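REVIEWER CHECKLIST
Item 1: Sequence provided? yes
Item 2: Single chain? yes
Item 3: Sequence as submitted:
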Amino acid sequence: YRSGFRLRMYLVYSIIYTLGFLLMLPAFLLNRQKYASGFSQRLGNYPEFEQDDRKVIWLHCVSVGETNAARPLVDKLLGEFPDHRLIVSTITKTGQELAQKIFGEKVDSIFYFPFDWRFSVRRAVRHFKPSLVLLMETEIWPRFVHEAKRSGAKVAIVNGRMSERSAARYSKVKSFISRVLKDIDLALVQSGNDGKRLIGLGIDSERVGITGNVKFDQVPASGDAATTKYFRERFGISPEKPLIVAASTHEPEEAYVIESLDGVLGRDCRLLLAPRHPERFDSVARLPERYSYSLVRRSSDPTDLDATADIILLDSIGELRSVYPLADIVFVGGSLIPHGGQSILEPAAEGKAIATGPYTHNFESVVNTFLENDAILQTPTSADDFSISERLYEAFTLLLENESRRYELGRNAKALMERASGDATDRTVKELVQLIG
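Item 4: Structure as written out by the authors:
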């Protein structure tokens, strides 16, 4: 009876997943540049991967954020499991490009994660034959988890997080999610609240461990210094005009930021915009046409205007970390709209004054910790577009005019990072050693 019920659940899931795929197919066709590069692999067609006597650890990262977060974990895994092979998958093109850049010489294969159909997942699992699968940040794909477990692999969530909003969505199909979570051997989560929400969805409590957030273990990569120097020299970054970096922004946050700096941008400060999604680079580049500000693009050939432009557009992948050392203030996007925010930990590791909007539920525990330690400035919820820009203007003005406050926030952020640095990755790998052993 239980086996039949499980089969029916996965059949219903596959039908819903296929319908969702068909609805998204026009977007795939219209945006081939974004999706075509990984489409064949996602159907299970992978380049040659010759098996040997070594066991395989498969680390799955979704996109840029998870790939960046995995840096310290990858290094620790390579050191702790020298007799294993490490492979890395991503879903997005930007994540794939970053993984190739930072892990290309470290791991045995980097590829696209399969679509969550039985045939494509089985092809992938049979091709790579993993003995351990690590899913970054609670990336739960039911068919993949089931087939990986069925193949004999251990499956673990690492650096897991489960927001209240995500838990509420999953709870609508709790009987199915509970079945999926039974195939998870270990869930290593960032906080107690994340663990409680996963347990509430059906995972056994003895399979949950609280290891902290590996993003606290971020350290500047050795290769970033040269890129930082390039940006400083090409764009004439200097203390005379403080640089505000608007990082990982979403529509329409760039407009809010520009409007909040009206009257001071160009005169008292400069702005670097780093949109979250590359497909928005061109539309963001056209924004200053509404205003009287000059803009230059990272992707363009260098010109004399680079050193004086009011706005710099970072239309590249994987270089945001290199920009943070140049910033005086960092605004972290995805937080002025109900998206839920982006990670604040990379600018914090550089000791920068960080401002964010009110919507940070994706990183609830981290932001709360920073607020408790006076290490971040968060704007209140606003009723309309004008109020959003006005609250942001107040935050920027406070930090631009009060240098000591700016340094205080940065010092507190860096101290918080240093106190937690290394612990989460060490705890994670220690748990994985026991799982493998």
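Item 5: Key structural point noted by reviewer: The radius of gyration is 22 Å.
Item 6: Recommendation: ____
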